[in-house]
Amino acid sequence: MLPYPPRQHGRQSGRIGAALTAVPAPGIFIATALSTYMGAGFAVGLFGVMPPVTVAWWRVTIGALALLAWRRPWGDRLRGRGYAWTRRALGAAAAFGVATATMNVLFYASISYLPMGTAVSLEFLGPVIVAILTGRGWRPRIAAALAMAGVASISGVGLDISDPAHRAGMLLALAAGLAWACYILLGHRVATSGAGLDALAVGTAAGALFYTPLAAPTASGAFSSAGTAAAVLGVAVLSTVIPYALDQINLGRLNADAFSLLASLMPATSMVVGIIMLRQMPNIGELAGLVLVSLAVALAGRS
């Protein structure tokens, strides 16, 4: 199955949460995707100031700080829910966070070479592979064929593999997909641990610390101007804080079939954002690959 985010235990609170709960689940899901890829679109504009790994690190770090401030995953608050951190639980959360950060770093690196919609389509091979390996029946097999055909269309028709930039972008996007697969498998373990978003907060902090040595030498570029600092903050809010918050509205409202069907819209959403924000017009090979991968996603997660 395609992944659900780590579950949050408890009720939505506040007027904003109550108002959002009244919004249909597909609307929340599409808003989440739009926010995520708009953040990625702003990130592309920062690559001239900082390397992609540093932009991704800032996204993860600011997201970690926001989650830690929101969840405060320590002390009496967790013990009141009957949960206590163990060395094993901390290790699982840290591994999940490193996988999450790696997925973001590789994806940002890939969109420095490829159009965003193309990179997202290639990256989706990761969750499709997980669904294929864990699924049964004829659907996973057809999904595998569709996904491979989509990748072949993108790599054979949509991209010029003889171009070093295209080749590097494709490999990075596929590597991001593998990191996404690890994120799914580790995320399932974290989601069933009982810590929910508290484990996500701890894991995101671990992921930020893991990539600090790589990002630190160029991290000061975020303060080169007020506009750059605002863009860095916007990337983190749009791609991390808002999606995680909106995900909580949909938890428990979407079954696996609905989730996989809506997830299949994400490559198309990223391509639309790329066209509008970055003027990245897809060619016929990229469009065909996107359609094939989207069909694979829709089919792979159905029960």
TrEMBL record:
Superkingdom classification of source: Bacteria
Pfam family, any one: EamA
Transmembrane regions: 16-38, 44-68, 89-111, 117-135, 142-162, 168-186, 198-216, 222-246, 258-278, 284-301
The keyword Nucleotide-binding is assigned to this record: no
EamA domain boundaries: 27-157, 168-300
Keyword Transmembrane attributed: yes
UniProt similarity note: Belongs to the EamA transporter family.
Protein name: Inner membrane transporter RhtA
Organism: Actinomyces denticolens
